[in-house]
């Protein structure tokens, strides 16, 4: 499809999601007001899809930015596509709506456009989002994810959210929901790490076959937050092949990395709190990668995950033991 700045993908439930989204995750040491200022800049630049989450701890700021841009007439509420996420300590059915309503209150919004299960791994329900035992190990919990999903369906029926989906699910976990008895709404998307070093071709193919949109995060590598990221991992934007293509097209490596995913049908979330970069990252609609460039970038795949969740690999629902 021809991509332009207002390009959207139609979700399986009929709602539309802008193909380029603004990510708001920041390392803990990053001041909260940056998310607010960054979101305002993003909306001014043209982003209409804002991705945030309960666990980011900045929904108040992001909500304030959206509110300010609605108040000053830049956008109407219906122009903004807001994604929120159900955190892992809220998987028990009676807590799903609690998490959603807390986020809505922080955001000062009446509804979310999309609410997704942040990841399939569940932690002990309670006020502590990362509950630890006396040995400093996360306390796991095991609700049937299909019961969690039913609770999300009820939130959609209640009008608190337009669309529902998942994040960080492998194909077997997606199938568990798709094949569940009495399924009312299937997940519209699966949001996963996706970039030139982890191009997710198998998962993308699977999702396309089920009419599920693949949404990519960490598309430019990552924020290199010490808590999650191996500091020795290669810096994606310094990749030589990527840089050769960028130079040839007179584009930034980031623009090429994003364009590569967009042309494969991935919805792209780009995160930056630097105004010039927010602007640059939006300029991915006025050029195209040819088949040869796409093939060169395909060749960079090395199944590299920047977001390191191996400390949770003993969780019964750890998603990444599967190939896709």
List the helices and strands and how they pair.
Layout: E1 8-10, E2 16-18, E3 20-23, H1 33-45, E4 49-51, H2 59-71, E5 81-86, H3 93-107, E6 112-117, H4 145-157, E7 161-167, H5 171-178, E8 189-193, H6 201-209, E9 213-217, H7 240-249, H8 253-263, E10 267-270, H9 275-282, H10 291-298
Parallel strand pairs: 3-4, 3-10, 4-5, 5-6, 6-7, 7-8, 8-9, 9-10
Antiparallel strand pairs: 1-2
Helix pairs in contact: 1-2, 1-9, 2-3, 3-4, 7-8
What do these coordinates show?
With 324 residues, the chain is α/β, with parallel strands linked by helices. It has ten helices and ten strands. It has one domain (16-315): Alpha-Beta Barrel (TIM Barrel), CATH 3.20.20.100. Strand 3 (20-23), helix 1 (33-45) and strand 4 (49-51) form a beta-alpha-beta unit. The two termini are 26 Å apart. The strands form two sheets. It has an eight-stranded parallel β-barrel with strand order 3-4-5-6-7-8-9-10, surrounded by five helices. A two-stranded antiparallel ribbon has the order 1-2. 33% of the residues lie in helices and 14% in strands. Helix 1 runs parallel beside helix 2, helix 3 (93-107) packs across helix 4 (145-157) and helix 7 (240-249) crosses helix 8. The chain has helices at 33-45, 59-71, 93-107, 145-157, 171-178, 201-209, 240-249, 253-263, 275-282, 291-298, and strands at 8-10, 16-18, 20-23, 49-51, 81-86, 112-117, 161-167, 189-193, 213-217, 267-270. The model has no long low-confidence stretch (mean pLDDT 96).
């Amino acid at each position: 499809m021809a991509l332009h700045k207002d390009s959207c993908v139609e979700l399986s439930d009929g709602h539309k999601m802008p193909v380029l989204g603004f990510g708001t995750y920041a390392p803990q040491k990053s001041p909260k007001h940056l998310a607010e200022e960054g979101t305002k800049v993003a909306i001014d630049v043209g982003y209409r899809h804002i991705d945030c989450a309960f666990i980011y701890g900045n929904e108040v700021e992001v909500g304030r930015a959206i509110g300010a841009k609605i108040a000053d007439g830049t956008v109407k509420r219906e122009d903004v596509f807001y994604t929120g996420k159900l955190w892992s300590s809220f998987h028990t059915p009676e807590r799903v709506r609690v998490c959603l309503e807390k986020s809505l209150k922080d955001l000062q919004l009446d509804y979310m456009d999309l609410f997704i299960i942040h990841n399939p791994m569940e932690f002990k329900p309670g006020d502590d989002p990362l509950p630890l035992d006396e040995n400093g190990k996360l306390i796991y919990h095991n609700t049937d994810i299909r019961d969690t999903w039913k609770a999300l369906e009820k939130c959609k029926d209640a009008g608190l959210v337009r669309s529902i989906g998942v994040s960080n699910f492998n194909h077997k976990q997606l199938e568990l929901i798709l094949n569940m008895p009495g399924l009312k709404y299937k997940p519209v998307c699966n949001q996963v790490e996706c970039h030139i070093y982890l191009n997710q071709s198998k998962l993308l193919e699977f999702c396309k076959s089920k009419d599920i949109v693949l949404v990519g995060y960490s598309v430019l590598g990552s924020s290199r937050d010490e808590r999650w990221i191996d500091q020795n991992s290669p810096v994606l934007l310094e990749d030589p092949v990527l840089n050769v293509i960028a130079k040839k097209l007179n584009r930034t490596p980031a623009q090429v990395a994003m364009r590569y995913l967009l042309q494969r049908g991935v919805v792209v979330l780009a995160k930056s709190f630097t105004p010039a970069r927010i602007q640059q990252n939006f300029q991915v609609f006025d050029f195209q990668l040819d088949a040869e460039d796409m093939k060169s970038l395909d060749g960079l795949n090395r199944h590299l995950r920047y977001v390191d969740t191996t400390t949770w690999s003993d969780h019964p629902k750890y998603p990444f033991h599967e190939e896709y």
